[in-house]
User: What shape does this take?
Amino acid sequence: MVASANTRLRLETAHLTALFAQHRAVRDVSLLFPANTVTAIIGPSGCGKSTLLRCLNRMHELTPGASVAGEVLLDNVNIYAPDVNPVELRRRIGMVFQRPTPFPTMSIYENVAAGLKVNGRRPKPEVDNAVSRALQQAALWEEVKDRLHTSALDLSGGQQQRLCIARAVAPAPEILLLDEPTASLDPAGTQRIEELCHALKRLYTIVIVTHNMQQAARVSDYTAFMYLGSLIEVGRTDELFTKPKVEQTEAYITGRFG
Amino acid sequence: MTTSAFRRHLVSRVMTVLVVILSFTAVLALVLILGNLIAKGASSIDWAFFTKSPVPAGQTGGGVANAIVGTGIIVGVAALIGVPIGVGAGMYLAEYGSGRLGFLVRFTADVLNGTPSIVVGIVGWTFIVKPTSHFSALAGSVALAILMIPMLARTTEEMVRLVPNSLREAALALGYPRWRTSLKVVARTALGGIVTGCLVGIARIAGETAPLLFTALGNLNFTVNVSQPMQTLSLQIYVYATGPFDEWHRLAWASALVLMGLVLVISLTARWVTRQRYGRIR
Assistant: This one.
């Protein structure tokens, strides 16, 4: 471990099972996400990695017919406990999706400020600061600082995705969930997002879902391999990719299936 | 060229010609109506037509200022009543209407959409004219609003459903409550389509006559009092076109032209708003 002081417990799943009606998309997964690290979840399409991610901020339950069993612990509090408000929980956990989702009716500035305003009114200088800080964190500031009040749709796909990252980090969440954030980007855009992961883990605990193993190897400290809804193996990324302990993991990372 | 290729080519040609002819026939109806109205009505349109009220039967001159203002007031009040209810119902159907109540509301709206407008007029008469014991513009507005609500509910629902689910999820993931997601992100994104739907609905009711026969009744004098009977262009056309005087027929043609022009302007505005919307969403 790089810095043991930073590995205090933040987020953990305990025997987590996620269902779509009767279908078990995630099966009994217990997984620890150490603070200020990047954890990658890899696996073939349909293995439940995105569903697992969506359980971490209670987005999964928004799908009609979806349900969850088991626990997700955030600082030792089960986020599925009855007294936890999912809306307030999501303000502590930022999320970025596969495709960029800028709000089409809002300017660049309004997009980044969107998550701040929902937390109650704040004085304008404070919002201005938070917006520019978030855009700097997302490495977008230099490109948009002169056109903050133009439409977010005028940005390129890669810029839009970084805008979504800025929007997610603007309210200063504790955790950042990335659901295949580079799936719709070209190599240059992908590289920028990956660089961001390195920079942002100093501030946030990051969980990234990816079907790209090279990406997992490049950005993450820990990697979890899932197959058919189950967690097959988890470990430090360098170890998992060089000395996998489970036969299935080795088969997957060497490209023999999936 | 083989025989089958030749056949396909021929069939394709014939069908293309057929479709073009049918399209022109559809457009022809509008051209004939507009041409006829302009030919028979345009000459009667002058300053007095817009500024004067009708003169007693048998005299020449006068205008339809009362009907133009009446149309504006009755349709305007109908929109004030109908737009919030219709758009609200549509938002509900699209965002929350997946359950039993949603099914019921959707079904009711569809039935109401198919209800003959004269029936809606009788409803207005029964529930407003009879209890208050006189005809009124307000009763007419309510009848028109009843016609408008199901139309707006269904078009709003369709427009809101066009908003990609990924935007809803993005807002919810930011910690937006459901209602705020619907209002600040979904409704705002669909706004162009919703406004278009409202304008089309207003254009539709602006030309209605039957629901007004039992409610607003018509009035040959200029009035802005909504508790009194009031004239609209459609009622004016109905009375003048069926009347015995040439002068009345002349004014009926002119009124029809003005009403048609009004509807056309609203429809064109709706198109313009839609174009703006596509320019923004892509």
